[in-house]
Design brief:
single chain, 163 residues
């Protein structure tokens, strides 16, 4: 009888332990789900090298280099300046504390006459760089969603109007 009573107490204690464990597991899952994209990417120290590589790839993209307006802008704007601003913009857009202080997308791209073909090439370059840095698929989707919000201010339509 005493053994049966001890087993019941053991089961009761085990149940209490598990019941108390479940909320902490749930809290960890909730905390992970609530992390910003910025935090999931690892902050500015992980974002900056990806931006650096991405811009290096863009500078060597033959499709983009065929656009004389893009080449003219590249010759005029120092790479380090562009990398700084793009890094700040990605950090801010992904929920980080950095603040983008550059010009708006429309203002900084309207004179470049960027086509849909050039936009698609940039997107392919971006995907290659994200894959190279092993950025998880969910974070890639979120980054592409952010980039997509800028398209209307960057890409011209075939008749010369912004999309």
């Amino acid at each position: 009888m005493r053994t049966f009573h001890l087993v019941r107490i053991g089961i009761l204690l085990s149940t209490l332990f598990l019941v108390n464990l479940v909320p902490s597991i749930s809290a960890l899952a909730e905390e992970k789900a609530q992390k910003s994209l910025y935090e999931r990417l690892g902050g500015v120290y992980n974002i900056a090298p990806v931006v650096d590589e991405f811009l290096e790839v863009l500078y060597n993209d033959d499709i983009l280099n065929a656009n004389p307006k893009i080449k003219e802008a590249r010759d005029r704007v120092p790479k380090a300046y562009l990398k700084y601003h793009v890094t700040s913009m990605v950090c801010q857009a992904s929920g980080g504390p950095e603040k983008y202080t550059g010009r708006g997308m429309k203002e900084s791209h309207q004179h470049l006459n960027i086509t849909e073909k050039e936009w698609q090439s940039m997107g392919a370059d971006f995907k290659k760089v994200l894959d190279k840095f092993k950025v998880p698929e969910q974070e890639q989707k979120e980054l592409f969603a952010i980039v997509e919000t800028t398209k209307k201010d960057i890409v011209i339509s075939p008749v010369g109007k912004k999309q």
